[in-house]
């Protein structure tokens, strides 16, 4: 019974956490239009530290410049995230969401644009599950449960 309660509580926390992290994205997408935009060029994003097995190294990161048009007007959007060269090659097409009344407000449908913090949350919840589940399982066994 303890294990079922734990799984139910864990599932509710997982669902609520993902809902809270996705709330702004869901509202933005519900009120917006979508289209395929093109990466026209890259903009320097500064120097960032990346990691390999051999250790950390610094490399210049690039931000993709995404061009799209709304009602005949061309716009260029540069997202907040930067990455190593090649994560969005020039000429690649990316799905974007924009507000019809404010076309310069954009949400990029990409791993870094929409899913980064949700993936971090899932990793933390997975670690919590792996550490808490043995404790809950051991405490549900009859020899550990007191009959007070």
Distance between the termini: 17 Å
As for the number of domains, it is: 1
Poorly predicted regions:
none
What is the beta-strand fraction?
Answer: 25-35%
SS content category: alpha+beta
Order of H and E elements: HEEEEEH
What form results from the Cα inertia axes? flat
Count of beta strands: 5
Q: Average pLDDT value?
A: 83
Q: Which sheet architecture does the biggest sheet show?
A: 5 strands, antiparallel
Radius of gyration: 22 Å
Share in helix:
25-40%
The main sheet orders its strands as 3-2-1-4-5
Number of discrete helical segments: 2
Explain what this protein looks like in three dimensions.
The chain is of the alpha+beta class and 148 residues long. The protein contains 2 helices and 5 strands, in the order αβββββα. The longest helix is centred in the last third of the chain and has 30 residues, at 111-140. It is flat, with a radius of gyration of 22 Å.
Search tags:
34% strand; 40% helix; 148 residues; 5 strands; alpha+beta; 5-stranded antiparallel sheet
Task: Put the structure in a nutshell.
This protein is 40% helix and 34% strand.
Furnish the topology, listing elements before pairings.
Elements: H1 2-30, E1 33-52, E2 55-70, E3 73-77, E4 93-98, E5 106-108, H2 111-140
Helix pairs in contact: 1-2
